[in-house]
Automatic annotation (TrEMBL), chain A:
UniProt GO cellular component terms: membrane
Start and end residues of each ABC-2 type transporter transmembrane domain: 21-425
The protein, known as: ABC transporter permease
Sorted UniProt keywords: Membrane, Transmembrane, Transmembrane helix
UniProtKB/TrEMBL annotation, chain B:
Keyword terms: ATP-binding, Nodulation, Nucleotide-binding, Transport
UniProt family annotation: Belongs to the ABC transporter superfamily.
Keyword Transcription regulation: no
One protein family per Pfam: ABC_tran
GO molecular function: ATP binding; ATP hydrolysis activity
InterPro entries: AAA+_ATPase (IPR003593), ABC_transporter-like_ATP-bd (IPR003439), ABC_transporter-like_CS (IPR017871), ABC_transporter_ATP-binding (IPR050763), P-loop_NTPase (IPR027417)
Organism phylogeny: Bacteria, Pseudomonadati, Pseudomonadota, Alphaproteobacteria, Caulobacterales
Protein name per UniProt: ATP-binding cassette domain-containing protein
Residues covered by the ABC transporter domain: 4-231
């Protein structure tokens, strides 16, 4: 095995053996599952509440029916979502969404002990029905009294738990709809028209000549932009995590006096390349595992979206542009961080130069989001030409088909800068590894020009 | 046949000349001590020999190559400041550095185990480097630097930080390396090791070569000393044959301790005989052999431990 690969393997194994690596490998998917799954589980496991609705007096006639109609409307909408999801082959995702968004209320007949009683006797009957100790078949979760205040629909909601707002929210929405229908009817609008106004949801379709269909814009047309932005962020994470690992690794070897031994066994270029490669493989492992889990989840939940993403990546060789930007971007920053590490023995030593570099790295994060909506905005285009920003911003812009000449020239600029950085970093690394002087622009400059 | 040749080598750091016009040779299969006080330019020279730093001027040839980097697989190097990966075991560390020098990993592990056993570190094989004592770690690092059986071994201050037992063990290892045909160049400012081990010494002072030759030749550069004690005056001692100089070390009620520097070639026997024949009141005497330490002081004008140059410029 050649020296570069040996160093890369050692670098990889050294980190892969640590607990921190496995924690970071598993933490993200675990938190994704916990963050998304637990609320879903809680919501879907929530019991359906038994609610009794009572109209108080003749003036309230029809309000209970309005509440029932509102509940039925919610159920119809939930069924519609399930049907649409099943048609798209996304039954799993549809069920998940439906389990969260569906109403968790069941209207039951009011017990006579409550409906026929008044005053303290009625209050006692309500408390008895809401009590946990009540027999299950006679126990209620909420009792709603519908009335009118100043002629407008109103309600008193009794719930078993003081903090339960679900029933109140549902009743509030139902009564608001009922009031709207009442007002429209009073204004001479036919009840059927009022109902239509109530349930109307406009269908707005977007069209663009750049859409895949040549007209109507679909989710498939939006996927490339999201992928570009995602790749930009992924590269940013790769640079931040990978370069930080490299910086710490070199710094540790410098402080442990290992670099000089290494330099007597391998060239500075071999050491630098081996380290950069080892850490790149390490971060790619992490991202590969995350990507694998993500792909598997997407294929299970929405195979259509997964297929669309695959098509987008293969369309016009987009994936190769992404790979090129990733390689160039990672190389530029990784060798720079490694060279800085060769001059430092403690994190404090590195802070002086890390600050400006981190400030530079914030710029693409801000501009990338702009590239999602306006990929050809002048500020995005101009910043894309700066080699240190090219990999992030061009990744975000690539799906919007920027001019080919721009793509080629920015790639050339980026790789030329990456080659320059490798050369500079190689010299600085060798000088820094053998030097006891503190890192400063002066010592860095002397190292690069070979005046050490 | 020379395994190493330095010819008019210079190394400057900015305005500071760390090494000036250095020329010497090391014969194949010999042990050469590279001596000099701290900051004399030893580490800079060793790094230039290895090709880790370029020489400002001059020519270096090692194992027939004009750049140490071209023959790095045939060289073993132990740096002055030592360190190995703390989380590796000794076997892993030795085989890794052996592999970097072209030794197959499996063979490296096999040799590492055997060499560790040989050095009494068999029980430490499976421990992490961070769990080893400084002496043990230093032995492991030395093994790591020679596991690939190099033709040329460069050791930068190999004895520093070791207890006497480990120093003795290290001396034995260096002798073994030379016995097996390797050329050894080691730097030190502790003269006793050089005196016991070296076929040849090169003495460096303030970046310049102060001496090159055998240990005996080095000793010969410095006079032998005769210590006399008795009611003798410095003038009377100075009149004795073979005396080059006299220094009074103490004088208590007319009983003096005199340090007499003998002339080159003088053995001291004639001086003592004449002193007794002349009736001088000699109550005690000691004839002192010249050590390399004495030669060092004589050649450099400095104590080996004292000639500090700021670390930054010494690199």
């Amino acid at each position: 095995m050649n020296r570069t690969l040996l160093i890369a393997r050692r670098e990889y194994v050294a980190y892969a053996k640590t607990v921190g690596f496995w924690l970071s490998l598993l933490a993200f998917p675990l938190f994704a599952v916990l963050g998304g799954g637990i609320p879903l589980l809680i919501r879907s496991a929530e019991p359906i509440k038994a609610v009794a609705v009572i109209e108080e007096g003749p003036a309230t006639t029809g309000l209970a029916a309005a509440v029932r109609a509102s509940l039925q409307s919610d159920l119809d909408r939930q069924n519609e979502r399930l049907r649409e999801a099943a048609e798209k082959g996304q039954a799993g995702a549809g069920r998940a969404v439906a389990s969260i968004s569906g109403p968790k209320i069941r209207l039951v007949a009011a017990p006579p002990a409550i409906a026929d009683a008044t005053g303290p006797a009625r209050d006692a009957a309500i408390k008895a029905a809401l009590d946990k100790a009540a027999p299950k078949d006679r126990r209620l979760d909420a009792v709603v009294f519908l009335n009118r205040v100043d002629g407008k629909p109103a309600a008193q909601v009794w719930t078993a738990r003081a903090t339960d707002n679900d029933v109140s929210s549902f009743v509030r929405t139902a009564l608001r709809d009922a009031r709207r229908t009442e007002l429209l009817t009073a204004a001479g609008v036919a009840p059927a028209v009022a109902q239509e106004v109530q349930t109307f949801r406009p269908e707005v379709k977007a069209f663009s000549p750049n859409a895949a269909s040549g007209g109507e814009v679909s989710m498939r047309d939006r996927i490339p932009s999201f992928i570009g932005l995602g790749v930009g962020f992924l590269l940013w994470s790769l640079v931040i995590t990978g370069a930080s690992i490299l910086l710490n690794s070199v710094m540790e070897e410098k402080s442990n006096k290992i670099l000089e031994v290494l330099l007597s066994s391998a060239s500075a270029t071999e050491i630098l390349t081996g380290k950069v490669l080892g850490v790149a493989l390490l971060t790619l492992t992490v991202m590969g595992v995350w990507g694998g889990i993500g792909t598997f989840s997407l294929l299970s939940a929405s195979p259509e979206t997964a297929a669309a993403i695959g098509q987008v990546l293969l369309h016009d060789g987009l994936i190769f542009y992404f790979i090129a930007y990733m390689v160039g971007g990672y190389l530029m920053y990784a060798v720079l961080f490694a060279a800085i590490g060769a001059f430092c023995e403690t994190p404090r030593d590195a802070q002086t130069l890390m600050g400006p570099i981190m400030m530079i790295l914030v710029v693409p994060i801000l501009v990338m989001q702009m590239a999602l909506t306006s990929p050809d905005a002048p500020v995005v285009k101009v910043l894309s030409w700066i080699p240190f920003f090219t990999p992030f911003l061009m990744s975000a812009r690539a799906p919007s088909d920027p001019p080919l000449v721009e793509v080629i020239l920015t790639l050339v600029g980026m790789f030329a800068t990456a080659a320059l950085m490798v050369w500079i970093a190689g010299r600085a690394f060798r000088a820094g590894a053998l030097s006891d002087v503190k890192l400063s622009w002066k010592t860095f400059g002397r190292a690069i020009t070979g005046r050490t | 046949m020379a395994a190493l040749t330095l010819d008019g080598v210079n190394k400057s750091y900015g305005d500071f000349d760390a090494v000036r016009d250095l020329s010497f040779q090391v014969e194949k299969g010999s042990i050469c001590g590279f001596l000099g006080p701290n900051g004399a330019g030893k580490t800079s020279t060793l790094r230039m020999i290895l090709g880790l730093q370029p020489a400002t001027a001059g020519r270096i040839e090692i194992l027939g190559a004009d750049d140490g980097r071209k023959v790095r697989d045939r060289i073993g190097f132990l740096p002055e400041e030592r360190g190995l990966y703390k989380k590796m075991t000794p076997v892993e560390a030795i085989s890794f550095f052996g592999a970097l020098k072209g030794l197959p990993v499996a063979e490296g592990k096999k040799r590492a185990k055997a060499m560790l056993e040989q050095q009494g570190l068999g029980a430490a094989q499976k421990k992490k480097m961070k769990e080893l004592s400084k002496g043990m770690a230093q032995k492991v690092q030395l093994i790591a630097s020679v596991v690939h059986q190099p033709e040329f071994v460069i050791l930068d201050e190999p004895f520093s930080g070791l207890d006497p037992m480990n120093q003795q063990g290290l001396e034995a290892m260096i002798r073994d390396l030379a016995a097996n045909g390797a050329t050894v160049l080691f730097s030190t400012h502790v003269m006793q090791h050089a005196e016991r081990l070296c076929d040849k010494v090169v003495l460096l002072a303030r970046g310049r070569k102060a001496f090159e030759g055998t240990v005996d030749q080095a000793r010969a550069t410095s006079p032998r000393f005769l210590d006399l004690e008795g009611a003798i005056t410095a003038q009377a001692a100075a009149a004795l044959p073979g005396v080059a100089g006299v220094e009074t070390l103490s004088d208590v009620d007319g009983v003096r301790r005199l340090k007499i520097a003998l002339s080159p070639g003088a053995g001291g026997q004639e001086t003592l005989k004449t002193a007794f024949l002349n009736g001088l009141d000699v109550r005690g005497f000691a004839l002192k052999e010249t050590t390399l330490h004495d030669a060092f002081i004589g050649l450099t004008g400095d104590h080996p431990d004292q000639l500090a140059v700021p670390a930054e410029t010494a690199r």
